[in-house]
Amino acid sequence: MSTALSRISRRRALQSGAVGLVTLGLLLWWVLPLGEDPPSGTITFSTGTRAGVYQEYGELLREELAKDMPQLKVRLLTSDGSQENVQRVATGRADFTIAAADAVDTFKVGGKPVAGRLRGVARLYDDYVQLVVPPDSDIRSVADLKGKRVAIGLPDSGVRLIATRVLEAAGIDPVKDITPRSDGIDTGPARLGKELDAFFWSSGVPTDGLEKIAETSSFRFVPIDAGLVAKVHAQGDAAHFYRATNMPESAYPTVQNGSTVPTIAVSNLLITRKDMDPRLTEWLTRTVIKSRDGIGAHVHSAQLVDLRTAIYTDPLGLHEGARRYYRSVKP
Fold first, then answer.
1. Per-residue pLDDT tens for 103-149?
2. Using CA atoms, how far apart are residues 91 and 65, in angstroms rounded to an integer?
3. Which H helix or E strand runs over 7?
4. H-helix segments, 75-207
5. Which end of the chain is more exposed for a tag (fewer CB within 10 A), N or C?
6. Among 195, 203, 192, which residue's Cα sits nearest to residue 50?
7. How many angstroms separate the CA atoms of 139 and 134, rounded?
């Protein structure tokens, strides 16, 4: 080989090596910021009921955070759901949480001074309203719930908020026209057909609590059609965060038998407070985005976490730490 060819080969080898190093550097940058020690300390993450998606997501996210920030202790705190979660973060009882956008907006417009402390971290995935009845029930629509024993969610849950609005849109007084129960996904399925004629649930799909009973017993979903959703929208306030949609046929295959279910969807937000450390929040945001596939393998709804839509945390502005992360990965 001539001297000239040897020089060219060496040059190409060096160039290839440089490209490889740059590629490796970009991959490491996506995963962890170079030259930084991971944040440490303790944070409290408010989740939800034990059989719900919020709790499962929180447990899996804690595992992912431990990989990126091994000196950060994440304390999980169960709750009634979205409404309690928002209150906890706003008042400092929790540092991060997941809450439905309608619950966040309801808290904001309530006029409490602490509401101004709330900030968004990421838009995660959508909740679907699921109205569940026994397979042989005579309940075919929301209007048929009149006079029935209906679980409308725990007092401080997002389920209670949305179930109340759906009932009112159907002309049903949730106090006088039904026998309201406060069951959530942890107790509602077991009481269905016994102490309960129906129960409302709002969550990402599938929900572990419903998947388990689908394996051993049967139930049916009552549709919430677009006409009723339009009446919910007419209520104003936070109702504009709801949209008419179809629960996919793959949510509970043994129950749906290949059919979609008309219903309502509302987006879930990961939220924190304005005074939360920006660097820690930036690291946490990074972990949330990059762990989507890992968490999504267990919590299917988490597969919908997307970098392009995560920044839309309406009705909250983005936390400074989250904003830093999204700017760092902007093409």
1. 999 999 988 889 999 999 999 999 999 999 999 999 999 999 999 99
2. 24
3. helix 3-31
4. 82-91, 101-109, 158-169, 188-191
5. C
6. 203
7. 9
DSSP class of 196: B
Predicted pLDDT at 285: 98
Cβ–Cβ under 8 Å, residues 291 and 122? no
Which is nearest to 178 in space by CA: 218, 110, 131? 131
For the stretch 165-174, pLDDT in tens is 999 999 999 9
User: What pTM value is reported for the model?
Assistant: 0.86
CA dist 187 and 86 (Å) reads 23
Assess contact for 265 and 171: CB atoms under 8 A.
no
* Whole-number Å distance between alpha carbons of 121 and 259: 34
Q: Which residue has the tokens 């091994």?
A: 70
Peptide bond into 206 cis (omega under 30): yes
Quote the CA–CA distance of 168 and 177 in Å, as a whole number. 10
Distance separating alpha carbons of residues 148 and 174, to the nearest angstrom: 11
In angstroms, the Cα distances linking 158 to 185, 203, 291 are 12, 9, 25
Percent of the chain having pLDDT more than 90?
76
pLDDT at 235 over 70: yes
Residues written for the chain: 331
Structure confidence by residue, pLDDT tens digits, 184-220: 998 999 999 999 999 999 999 998 888 888 877 789 9
| Half-sphere exposure at residue 13, Cβ-oriented, CA atoms within 13 angstroms | 6
C-alpha–C-alpha distance, residues 30 and 286, integer Å: 8
> What single letter denotes the amino acid at residue 10?
R
DSSP character at residue 186 = T
The C-alpha angle 329, 330, 331, rounded to 5 degrees, equals 110
Q: Regarding beta strands 96-100 and 41-46, do their DSSP bridges make them parallel or antiparallel, or are they unpaired?
A: parallel
Q: How far is 219 from 109, CA to CA, in rounded Å?
A: 37
- Please give the single-letter amino acid code of residue 211: E
- Name the residue among 160, 167, 211, 205 with its Cα closest to residue 189: 211
